[in-house]
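In response to a reviewer's request, we include the raw inputs and outputs for one of the modeled complexes. The two entities were modeled together in a single run.
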Amino acid sequence: MKGKSFLWQNKRLMAHILFRHRDIPDINKLDVYKKNGGFAALKNAVTKMKPAEVTDVVKNSGLRGRGGAGFPTGMKWSFMDSKSWPHYVLANADESEPGTFKDREIMENNPFQFLEGVALASYAVGANLAYVYLRGEFWQVAAFLDEKLAEMEDAGYLGENLFGTDYSLKIHTHLGAGAYICGEETALMESLEGKRGQPRVRPPFPPSVGLYGKPTVINNVETLTNVPLILANGADWYKSMGTADSAGVKIFSLSGRVRKPGNYELPFGTTFRQLIYENGGGVQDGRPVKAIMPAGASSSLIVVDDKTLDTPMDYAFVRTLGADLGSASVIVIDDTVSIDWVINKTIHFFKHESCGKCTPCREGNYWMRHLTERIHSGNGYSTDVDLLLNVAKQMQGKCLCALGEFSTMAVVTGIERFPQDFKKAVKA
Amino acid sequence: MLLEKYPKEVKQILSKYPPEHKRSAVMPLLYLAQREEGYVNKAAMQDIAQLLDVTETEVASIVGFYTLYHDEKAGKYRMQVCTDLPCALRGADEFLNNLCANLGVKVGETTEDGLVTIESVMCLAACDKAPMFQTQGPDGIKYHENMTVDRTMELIEALKKVKE
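The model returned the following structure tokens for the whole complex.
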């Protein structure tokens, strides 16, 4: 763990960076946001900094994408093709991973910080038009953001000639309509173009060919919400939090069998034990934790022992447990739950959400669903478990996007790491 | 015709996208088209196809792909209960079963008065507030979190009193 900032004492939060509404309840009002330093970073950037300088600060801060992939944000921005115009910025607010519910809390309560982040990203890559793509279920959130965007426009933080410069920016919301796949960056672009949300072949990547065939930066809501404070306080300030591998703070969405499920904003490097027991109040009925899915339904299942619980949560450390931190949606499973039931649930989800473009994912999830259902209902044989594992492994590495791959993670790790649960579930 | 019925809304929707990419407006226009009846009828699909210079088949494929568009009439409100893993770990399956038993319907069915259709849906990003569901109706989509069957029955009583 590196040096602690004044914000932290014994890894406890003194003041939030993303969930500032928890410290300043009215921060969703424009004047309150402004009084607390709001839009100063945007004004400073647009009037005093070159776009590339904004990108450099973000690059130096070590900020990595919070949607799951953990790709360095500033580096992504610097990839934008400067020979092809116009440029676009997209905020990915499609939040649909089972176990993830953090972006909604940001948008509902600290909307201006998020939107200022969108504006800063837009300025950094020279975009004059940005969209916030929200999942269709966030109907009320989109209406709320529309109000906030209008307020920003009235106050001169969006629109033509910002702060008297020649830079102009429009931000619009766009509602999806119920498709998990649209959280995948290229499927999101297809969807925004008015098509079925099916992923594109990559390369080319969005910074070369994105929305409407033009260079596009796409970032998760939480990622963008970090940006105004990084610009205001500097890259070193941000890097002073978290770990060497993963700088800064992360929102952990804690769900499942815990006493106090919810979102917890903590520095990277916080251990699973601190999250589950100190923040989440421990497991319901005092049961032991049996398994953890650190990245929602897309996650590998981690076998839980003392060593697991004391593992610091950052992108690199979680990998040592044979899983990815992803979007940090930590689902806690206790010893009353059988893993064959867990994977039946996750495959039910993925079978429904497979977009149908790649055969291994479309057909594989269909057959995996038949097998998990048969096993879970008590009608399966041990050969069904072997077949399920076989189908899952055949899917891996054969799909255009990560959905196909992710759908197999809990199945493979569930069978390999919790064999006793499957032995119990099947007939001889 | 959509354009005649909602001229202001259509114009506002189209203004969000570059004119050469007006096809992007298909999703908001579909929401507009199903506002009144709760589903998109064939005439509206033709209408949208014409407005955006795309084929009717392409519009229909969008309706078919996304779960929040419907091409068939259901109850005035669709009550969509999340039963994915995190919600199920907090009793969402039992909640859905008990709710159905209370209403005397199965999942996918509509109450006799045509008010509510019960559906089981995928993750709604409210895992810490399960059991939960959303209602999709004439006034858009609303979340209802930390629900019990009793509170849901009260909500249904309140929905009965909502006038168009």
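As requested, we also summarize the result in words. The CA atoms of residues 50 and 56 of chain B lie 8 Å apart. The mean pLDDT of chain B is 95.
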